[in-house]
Amino acid sequence: MEREHSMQNGQPSALAADNARLRFGTAGVPASIEGASHLAGLQEVVRLGLEAMELAFVQQVKVDPQEIAAIKGLAAAHNIALSAHAPYFVNLNSADRQVVGASRQRIVKAAQVAEACGATRVVFHCGWRHDATADEVYTRVRDQLLRIQEELSRKNVAITLCPETTGKVKQFGDLSEVLRLCQELPGVEPCVDFAHLFARHGGAFGPDEFEATVQSISRALGPAALLRLHIHVSGIEYGRDGEIRHLPLQQSALDYSALLACLLSHNVTGVVICESPTNDTDALLLQQAYRQAKAARKGQEVKPDGNNGRGHCNAAAGYEG
Q: CA–CA separation, 228 vs 190, rounded Å?
């Protein structure tokens, strides 16, 4: 079933309205200024020429109240696509009702603060499988997401919930589970983490699997979902149980060039967030590779700018910026 674009305050969201390109950015503050504030991180994203940032609330949901308006204004002024990642300490399938309740509240609080900062999406991991069957886990997670949606609606928080494909096989969040949630819950859209999928499949996840993933999203949610897709990419180390840790792209076997080629071939647009330890340099690497591949399809040329070799597509190349 094809779904309509997400709406924010009665208007199409920034991601839904962007039908021209993929926007690349960092998960949290750029690595070059690690430890800086969210606002300083966003300022660095702008300076680098990136176009997206995911506010990292992964340890706690905390933003200096005096910076919230500045973050929102800066992102709007520079057309930066903002999202947020809720805390890692979420388990919507816990047998402990207090853990489930606290998990809901972490997502709700992340959504509230993210929306105040101008973000249109909040990303999160749903939890762990434990000893339950796949159907039992799915039902519990779906029911908790419904409760989160209801609470956000009561609080007049308009933001898109994005459950993420996860990297460990013992976690809830393979592609089919995430897409099913998005089919059954209006206003929920996927965060497709290709590094996590790569780790889940023991590294056996290349061009054919990229193609199958994009086609699965289109079949499940309609072709319009590919115009506002939220993506995570990084290098990754994996073992028998899946993800071990994120790596710089060039230290990993994940074929990011083939991934970008696949996304281009399907005219996928939206946001690509880089989660590698070198998130800024790798986001720039992805952005430049994407622009070069896109220009090559049009028979154009992308020239690097003078910012320490960081590239952008010049006006003659016709990049839709």
A: 10
